[in-house]
Amino acid sequence: MAQECLRVSPQCNFCQRGCARAPSPTPPSPFSIVSPSQRVLQKHNKSLRRQVDDHEALARLLHTWVLSQQPASEPSTRAPWNHSTLLANAAGRRHGLQWLSDKVYHNAVASMPRAAVFGASVQDAFRFTLHTTPDHDDVAAMETHLQHTFFANVKDVARVIWGCEHPSSPLKTYVVATDELVEQVHDRLIYNHGVYQGTGTDVRRIVSWFEDAHRIVITFTLLTEDECFPVARGQIRTHGFCWVIVERVTHSVSLLRHSVLHFKPVTADGPASLDDIGRMYNLHRGASQPRHAFVEQIRSAAEAAARDRYQTLLANLSQVLDL
User: Which of 21, 24, 79, 222 has its CA 20 to 30 A from that of 161?
Assistant: First the structure.
């Protein structure tokens, strides 16, 4: 046994010296211990980075696509058929009355955040624009904007305007001389038929009331076609859209904004001719008169007629509200 100990002793000493030279294990750093919550955060961070990279790649792709496109054309003054046609089918008709009204309402609301026609001014104002065809020798549309302040509550102003649109109302202060109730979907959605003062043009209007927190919007969809009531021979029908926005300024002060877009009127044979439009304003083109000169004559007469109609409208509304 003593001999065996002597034989193994050098090996034990060698192992001890090796252990003494070996570095002691480094104690674990508290920062090297990753908790489950940290693992979740790291995973979420990687996911966010991937999303950012994906969005950046998409933005670059869209930027390249936009640069490759041709410049957009000017907004068309011609309305697609399904924007102003009412079907004969009962279900489609009821849906169309609401859908067309909603479309005009959303256009009206969408126009509010952008620069107003009259800028930041709340002064009474009127603006008329006649849009011509690209070669300037025919009428494409007529656009009118009106702004006026009433010293009355917003609901009172809106009710008076709405009342003018109902045939049973004794108030007839609007620009349509006659009104006939065609359909009533509910108390805030009606369809009527009438004739414009002065021009004598036929008009079929879907009128709807929308009430928001600080304003009331009344929309008018002027139909191009109603399958139940086609344009009669010899008749000229006005079509387009318009809205009245009555905004609350104070409890007893309201700001009215009225926007109208009349497209080129139609007849039983299609779009009205330039001579047809001239006759609406008691104008007749001479045999040698250039078309573009006649267009300017129509512009002047139409603006004067619109200004006169709306001045009368505002005076009548003010008179009713003062009662």
Answer: 79
